[in-house]
Amino acid sequence: MSLRGDYNLAAADFSVEQDWSAYSEADHALFRRLVARQSKLVPRYACPEWITAIAGLDADAGIPKFDQISKKLRAKTHWEIVAVPGLIPDEAFFTHLANRRFPVTVWLRKPEEFDYIVEPDVFHDFFGHVPLLFDRVYADHLHEYGKGGLKAMRLDAVKMLARLYWYTIEFGLIRTPAGVRAYGAGLISSGGELAYCVADAAPKRLDFDLEKALRTDYLIDRYQSSYFVINSFAQLMRETAPDFTPLYDRLRGLPALAP
Length: 259
Ligand code: PHE
Ligand code: CO
Hints:
Shape: globular
Strand order of the largest sheet: 4-3-6-5
Mean pLDDT: 96
Low-confidence stretches: none
Oligomer: single chain
Bound molecules: phenylalanine, cobalt (II) ion
Strand content: 5-15%
């Protein structure tokens, strides 16, 4: 992988120390600006579970100390945050999730990347992903996903499982009494796509379909043209619970679907 981030000091599991004192005041100010922009959007477009959790995380104070967040997480859902230099290999990623550790990138984007970055940074990982780890059902589902990832490696099915992650954990929508809302981290951390995914007439919003999600390719450099909508995290948990082995075997023979 050719990746941004300093991997030299990473341990075998790709974890690093979060050197919190190394963040500059400009870094914290940029983080606060990112939080401030999203804070205008999330009441309208993010799911209630995310909104409830962010309130306890002091996100508008600046880049958080991961240790303090982990303490709260452990108490609530037995998850913790592990600091990483950036994207990490599949096996390390799945192993962390399978042990209820969520990898959070330590570096923050540059000011000129305010609107868009290709790789996840601390703002995306923290603001997008971490709050939902406080929801018990979501947290348990992500744990199962991690174990499923290790299994998919043995079955040579990581590509299919990664599509599911994309269409749920990163870009998923959920029905609420107030209407469709975003729970995907790629949406919640996006300045433009968060309103687009919920309110724009252009994209398709399809009922969640496990097989379709596993088969559908995705675009990483533009807004999604289709989103999958779940009814609840319990539904996601339930529908992903069966053994995927026969499903992988069957889908492997079928062509991928266009996004
Ligand atoms: N049930 C899946 C399997 O047997 C694992 C999984 C769980 C995948 C939750 C995604 C989400 O492989
Ligand atoms: Co992400």
